[in-house]
Amino acid sequence: MFWRNRDSARKCARAQRMLSDRSAGLLGPYRERWLRRHLAECDACRHEEEVLARVLMLLDRVPPLAPPPGLWYGVEAKIRAEARARAAAPRIRWKPVGAAAAAGTVVLLAAASYLLPEPEPAVTFTRLPPDSLAYIETHALNARSGPLADHVGLISFATVAGRQRAVGASGW
Amino acid sequence: MAVNPATEASDALLVQRAQAGDAESFRVLFERHHRRIYNAVYPIVRTAADAEDVTQDAFVRAYRALGSLREGQAFLSWLYRIALNLARNHVRDRRASLWESLDEQVVWGEETLERQIADPGPGPAQAAEEHEVQAVVRAAIEELSPAHREVVVLHHLQGVPVEEIARVVGCSVGTVKSRLARARDALKRKLRSYVLAEP
């Protein structure tokens, strides 16, 4: 008896939730059939269906409230006050300011590239015979293709070796 | 009787004219929609004075942002969105200031008293009036959670279709339907005794 009552209460709770779902268009055909069958045999849930319908009818009986007259004047006054404040504020002409800033940046970058000394490689070589320098240069250039190679270091080695070799060849 | 052509124009046309600087067109948009906006925000902010302020602010914001309204975008949905956001922010700010003011103590002569809060419920005379039903239903709606209240107000009191509400609130149609169903459950619980007592 207890189990039957508990099962029935669970079904009723489910049905009552479905009543609201159905009113909002959320019920699919399977649940719709289940609900209809349950309503056919359950007085309590049919009563709940009636209560829900009456509540929804009550909602339809609430007319819109009338806003107080003169609301527009407040809107108009606020819009006018904002327009006045905008007109009174000093205007910055952003287009010329932006163009001047861009031009300034270009000039600064150009000047920096001329004025700042070119960074020298940190590596220096003691004077080596031209053969050794050629070997270092070639080896550094070949080794640079390795996946774990220190590209920057190897290129620096090759550059310095190449320069020294060139200077040596020209009588340094 | 002469008919003002502006009052006959569609929202889209009026928005176009207002965007071009025609203040009269914006006034017509206001006349056309301010009742809906007032009624949409009233149950959220809960006082007439706040509903007035929020309605006015919503139109001022809308006027300021008219340029951002895309062609073909529905003015009313856009306006609802602005108004509901303002109403939510208004309630949040008021709640913050209410906590502050409730924490303060009242100085009465030489005594310091705890602040007493007046019961805002309807008096017996008001309940006896013809508008009793409306008052009871409005009170029940105001007790709903903010998300449920919004969909109930827009759908039941304003007649906005579910698909439109989804656009206004920024969620799926399924979510709106689900909120509507749960809100109806809640309203049924709140109004059950009233409905059953009615002849």
Can you describe this structure?
The complex is a heterodimer of chains A (172) and B (199). By secondary structure, chain A is mostly helical. Among the domains of chain A are: 7-60, no CATH class; 130-169. Chain A contains seven helices and no strands. Chain A starts with a helix and ends with a helix. Chain B is mostly helical. In chain B, 72% of the residues lie in helices and 3% in strands. Chain B contains ten helices and two strands; from the N terminus they run H-H-H-H-H-E-E-H-H-H-H-H. Chain B has helices at 5-8, 11-19, 23-45, 48-64, 75-103, 124-128, 132-142, 146-157, 162-169, 173-197; strands at 106-108, 111-113. Chain B has a two-stranded antiparallel ribbon with strand order 1-2. Chain B starts with a helix and ends with a helix. Mean pLDDT of chain B is 82; it is low at 100-120 and 124-130. At the A-B interface, helix 1, helix 3 and helix 4 of A face helix 3, helix 4, helix 7, helix 8 and helix 10 of B.
Quaternary form: heterodimer
User: What proportion of the residues of chain B is helical, as a percent range?
Assistant: over 70%
| Separate helix tally of chain B | 10
Unreliable residue runs of chain B: 100-120, 124-130
Detail the poorly predicted runs of chain A: none
Counted up, domains of chain B total 2
The major β-sheet of chain A equals: none
Principal-axes geometry of chain A comes out as elongated
Strand content of chain B: under 5%
CATH superfamily of the largest domain in chain B: RNA polymerase sigma factor, region 2, helix turn helix motif
Biggest chain pair interface: A-B, 33 and 44 residues
What's the β-strand tally of chain A?
A: 0
Encode the helix/strand succession of chain B as letters.
Answer: HHHHHEEHHHHH
Q: Give the termini separation of chain A.
A: 113 Å
* Overall pLDDT level of chain A: 78
Beta-strand level of the residues of chain A, as a percent range? Answer: under 5%
What kind of sheet is the major sheet of chain B?
A: 2 strands, antiparallel
The CATH topology of the largest domain in chain B comes to: Rna Polymerase Sigma Factor, Chain: A
Structural class of chain A: mainly alpha
Radius of gyration of CA atoms of chain B, rounded to a whole number: 20 Å
Q: How many β-strands of chain B, per DSSP?
A: 2
